[in-house]
């Protein structure tokens, strides 16, 4: 049993998760395997309402599940010489352009092919706040979403950038190619996002979810598609993908929230194109842009040709 338990993170059990086993709940929250979650629980890295519980413990509504980071040797981000597209770098922060298809940090099935593996190979100093699994990683992008990510080189910078995200001072803009033609020039989707009660591996708009707001504006209308710019006001898991599916305009090639149609091998057409934040040392606003991936541009060219 661990003494002086100080949690790194916690979650309050929603009504839809009441009755769930503790190990299953934790694996979904942390997006990791059941075996890793069981090890965390058995080794005392997890408390429920300030007490240790067994893996099979059935959760109740409003239970507080708290956990400490546990370093799993096989999930440590080992240095691997992978390409790293550095948009900006100084002694405090790093901004990288992640390609579609790359996982942000080690996870089951991805131990040596992630952005974190590339970071520890190319960058000498990274924040240690998230341990050896997610060195320097302040926030993440889905595997098949491309674009800009903040990376912290020092712990102080990490705390600053994480607070910027938490207080919604960081501005993030995305480009998305969606199904159908959106007639409104702009709009706001204000709908809570939480775990899908029918499929715990997915997110959904649900009354038991956390507040989530996505603003969008139309960039270009095509015959059967629309190119839009999205701006996040909150940062829930899969938020843009869930919100656009919710208004019946899912992102093209989104195999989880779309209509099951993939007409090429590229991931969902969602790109984090703009990132703005206050620099942790100078307090000056820094803004960065990343061009669309070539596959994204080729898709747009193809659709425009079809419209003629």
Short description:
The chain has about 300 residues and is α+β, with helices and mostly antiparallel strands. The chain is about 20% helix and about 25% strand.
Model description:
By secondary structure, the chain is α+β, with helices and mostly antiparallel strands. It has three domains: 9-70, RNA-binding S4 domain (Structural Genomics Hypothetical 15.5 Kd Protein In mrcA-pckA Intergenic Region, Chain A, Roll); 74-166, 2-Layer Sandwich (Pseudouridine synthase); 173-272 and 296-307, Pseudouridine synthase (2-Layer Sandwich), CATH 3.30.2350. It is built from six helices and 14 strands. The protein has helices at 22-30, 34-42, 115-122, 155-166, 239-246, 294-307, and strands at 9-12, 46-48, 64-67, 86-89, 93-98, 146-152, 171-179, 186-190, 193-196, 199-205, 213-221, 225-232, 270-278, 285-289. A hairpin with a 3-residue loop joins strand 11 (213-221) and strand 12 (225-232). Helix 1 packs across helix 2. The mean pLDDT is 88.
Key attributes of the depicted protein:
single chain; 308 residues; alpha+beta; Structural Genomics Hypothetical 15.5 Kd Protein In mrcA-pckA Intergenic Region, Chain A; Pseudouridine synthase; 3 domains; 9-stranded mixed β-sheet; 3-stranded antiparallel β-sheet
């Amino acid at each position: 049993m661990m003494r002086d338990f100080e949690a790194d993170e916690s979650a309050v059990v929603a009504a839809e998760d009441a009755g769930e086993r503790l190990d299953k709940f934790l694996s979904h929250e942390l997006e990791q395997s059941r075996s890793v979650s069981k090890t965390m629980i058995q080794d005392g890295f997890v408390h429920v309402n300030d007490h240790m519980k067994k893996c099979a413990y059935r959760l109740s509504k409003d239970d507080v599940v708290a956990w400490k980071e546990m370093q799993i040797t096989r999930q440590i981000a080992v240095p691997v010489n992978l390409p790293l597209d550095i948009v900006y770098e100084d002694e405090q922060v790093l901004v990288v352009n992640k390609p579609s298809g790359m996982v942000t940090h080690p996870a089951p099935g991805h131990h040596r092919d992630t952005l974190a593996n590339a970071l520890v190979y190319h960058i000498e100093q990274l924040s240690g706040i998230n341990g050896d699994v997610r060195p320097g990683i302040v926030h993440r992008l889905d595997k098949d979403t491309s674009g800009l990510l903040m990376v912290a080189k020092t712990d102080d910078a990490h705390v600053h950038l994480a607070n910027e995200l938490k207080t919604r001072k960081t501005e993030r803009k995305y480009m998305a190619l969606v199904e159908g033609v959106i007639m409104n020039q702009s709009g706001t989707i204000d709908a809570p996002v939480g775990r899908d009660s029918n499929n715990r591996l997915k997110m959904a708009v649900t009354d038991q979810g956390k507040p989530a707001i996505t603003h969008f504006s139309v960039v270009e209308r095509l015959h059967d598609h629309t190119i839009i710019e999205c701006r996040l006001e909150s940062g829930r898991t899969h938020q843009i993908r869930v919100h656009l599916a919710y208004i019946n305009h899912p992102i093209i090639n989104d195999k989880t929230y779309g209509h099951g149609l993939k007409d090429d091998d590229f991931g969902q057409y969602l790109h984090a194109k703009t990132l703005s934040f206050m620099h942790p040392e100078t307090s000056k606003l820094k803004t960065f842009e990343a061009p669309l991936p070539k596959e994204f541009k080729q898709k747009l060219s193809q659709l425009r040709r079809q419209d003629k």
